[in-house]
Amino acid sequence: MTAEPVGSEWRVTVRDNGIGIAPGQIGRLFQVFQRLQARAEYEGVGLALCRKIVEHYGGRIWAESAGDGQGCVFTFTLPVSGEPRP
Questions:
Q1: What are 2-58's pLDDT values in tens digits?
Q2: What are the C-alpha distances in Å from 83 to residues 7, 61, 86?
Q3: What CA–CA distance (Å, rounded) separates 9 from 78?
Q4: Ramachandran angles phi, psi of 49, nearest 5°
Q5: In DSSP terms, which residues pair with 64 in a beta bridge?
Q6: 2-79 CATH, one of 3.40.50.300, 3.30.70.270, 3.30.230.10, 3.30.565.10
Q7: Which of 35, 65, 68, 81 could share a disulfide with 72, CB 3.0–4.6 Å?
């Protein structure tokens, strides 16, 4: 995990060496009630909830993966002010 100031935002990046995500599935990651694998196979971290929290504070969140078996990179930004959006 890294965290660095970029302009008026903090950028936090988390890398894993997990199962990866097929490029065509990345758009579904942050949608409510979407799962890419069965709950019995892999527990999720609630990425739709993560998106809601980050956006509430005026940030952005996204994921990148080279594909199945290649791990993922999750990145989010938050304003330095740390104040929620009205």
A1: 999 999 999 999 999 988 888 888 888 887 665 555 544 555 567 888 999 999 999
A2: 16, 17, 9
A3: 5
A4: -65, -40
A5: 73
A6: 3.30.565.10
A7: 65
In three-state secondary structure terms, 1 is coil
- The C-alpha atoms of residue 35 and residue 56 are separated, in whole angstroms, by 23
Helices (H), 1-86: 47-56
- Residue of 77 and 35 predicted with greater confidence: 77
- In contact, 65 and 38? CB cutoff 8 Å: no
Phi, psi angle pair for 27, to nearest 5° = -60, -25
pTM higher than the cut 0.85: no
Please state, in angstroms and rounded to a whole number, the distance separating the CA atoms of residues 72 and 16.
Answer: 5
Q: DSSP state, 83?
A: P
